[in-house]
Amino acid sequence: MRAIALREIKLGFRNPWAYSFMALFALFSLALLLIQSQAGMSGYTSTTGTMINLILYLLPLMTLLLGSFSLTSEKEEGGWRLLSSFSLRTHSYIWGKYVGLAVVLLVIVSIGFGLSGAAGALFGRGFELQAYGRFLLFSALIIFLFLGISVLLGAFCRNRWQALTYGVGVWFFFILGWPTILIAVLGFLPYLWIKPALVALIFFNPAELNRLFLIVKMGGGSILGPEYYQWVEWIRQPSGSFVFAGVCGLWVLAYVELATWIWERGRRRE
Predict the structure, then answer these.
(1) Are 111 and 22 in contact (CB under 8 A)?
(2) Cβ(61)–Cβ(146) below 8 Å
(3) Quick one: which of 119, 148, 190, 202 could link to 255 by a disulfide (CB 3.0–4.6 Å)?
(4) Cα separation of 164 and 78, whole Å?
């Protein structure tokens, strides 16, 4: 697995897509610095809410495309056939891909935030350390969770065009279409079922789950409304962070293991 991860890191930084997203994220982080110069970054404000939404628009799409393209390109260019001629387990291959891609994406995000932090320090308008850490952690969790989905897409799709179509579709479903879909589904349920269903459905959207967790941790739980009162209570408890980490871990494990199973089935058919 280590050799596959190191190989993926090298290939990742040779990929022009990685540098395109790195430039885009750096530009995005510098824009956040301009926003921060006009409003405070202490606690949850309209400014921090805008920043959360901007991160949610960019990072999941970037992760879905880079991750799925990495696996489908192996199918199209024949790299997987060469590797499969060695005594390489599918489990080690998929997890090595995941770890290598995670490192590449984390470097991209760190450089983006690092540029904004350096520019802020230079002009005396830097982020507060606590806010910087929270947004960096939030971005890392988005990467880990959506990278699991992207690996699954890469195992399922046959080529990059198919991965592009499905990746954009998944991004649209979880990021743009989720509020409309959620309202439509809840509208068909009896009134007493709406609140439990709302709580349950949140766990099926990694972006929304991370967004709510960050908002509550930043002290903005009151804006969510009474429907999320139980969420606010358990997230504020010391055990809330451990439960959240466990849910995120299950997300990653489930999707990567499912991708391994799909890839292994395809390998046996060859």
Answers:
(1) yes
(2) no
(3) 148
(4) 19
pLDDT on residue 258: 93
CA-based end-to-end distance of the chain: 22
Count of CB atoms within 10 A of residue 166's CB?
19
Question: What whole-number distance in Å separates Cα of residue 249 and Cα of residue 242?
Answer: 10
Task: Tell me the pTM.
Answer: 0.86
CA atoms within 13 A on the CB side of 203: 14
Residue 171 confidence (pLDDT): 94
Position 124 scores a pLDDT of 59
Mean pLDDT by 10 residues, the chain (270 residues): 83 78 74 59 64 84 90 80 72 90 90 72 63 82 93 90 93 91 84 78 86 77 62 71 85 92 73
Residue type for 231, please?
W
* Closest C-alpha among 105, 92, 175 to residue 147: 105
Q: Which residues contact 68 (CB under 8 A, 6 or more apart)?
A: 150, 151, 153, 154, 157, 160, 163, 164, 166, 167
With a CB cutoff of 8 Å and minimum separation 6, the contacts of 194 are 186
Residue 3 class from Cβ within 10 Å (0-12 exposed, 13-18 middle, 19+ buried)? middle
Three-state DSSP string of 105-162: HHHHHHHHHHHHHHHHHHHCCCCCHHHHHHHHHHHHHHHHHHHHHHHHHHHHCCCHHH
The C-alpha R_g of the chain, in whole angstroms, comes to 20
Tokens of 123: 């002009």
